[in-house]
Fold this sequence. Notes:
alpha/beta, Rossmann fold, 8-stranded mixed beta sheet, magnesium
Amino acid sequence: xxxxxxxxxxxxxxxxxxxxxxxxxxxxxxxxxxxxxxxxxxxxxxxxxxxxxxxxxxxxxxxxxxxxxxxxxxxxxxxxxxxxxxxxxxxxxxxxxxxxxxxxxxxxxxxxxxxxxxxxxxxxxxxxxxxxxxxxxxxxxxxxxxxxxxxxxxxxxxxxxxxxxxxxxxxxxxxxxxxxxxxxxxxxxxxxxx
Length: 194
């Protein structure tokens, strides 16, 4: 029996929210170590990622590690003029953050701090669920699919998923607009996908 995307999304979100604070902290630190190794091997200088929300794998240890290494960190922001799209703004310790209409913290708009996706080396994406083929299910808004649609043609930015191990499912139903990920970092491994 096939289960709907909505049901699958609810099940996986519940699984990650059920993790204890201790598990969340441990998993975030383990994933950070794997991510830093990959980022170092790839020579990444500019990287976008997200601030964890809704039980997502916490990115703060990774953000701190990136800052310590002098790697430029960017956060997504809902595009002010192009609904359904993202822009990326520099994120530093003193960057002002505001809640967007979805209740997610994002940088205050400052055009001088903006980077287009192809100006980044890597984008670490949030996700709700993934499978062994690198298929990714987000929250359903399509923001990252639209943002990363041209990465294979441009060669940048490399999209990398970041998730708890409990977010892996055997198979994800996919649509033609879904952008598969070449790799997904979890606390225990790097899953090579598309």
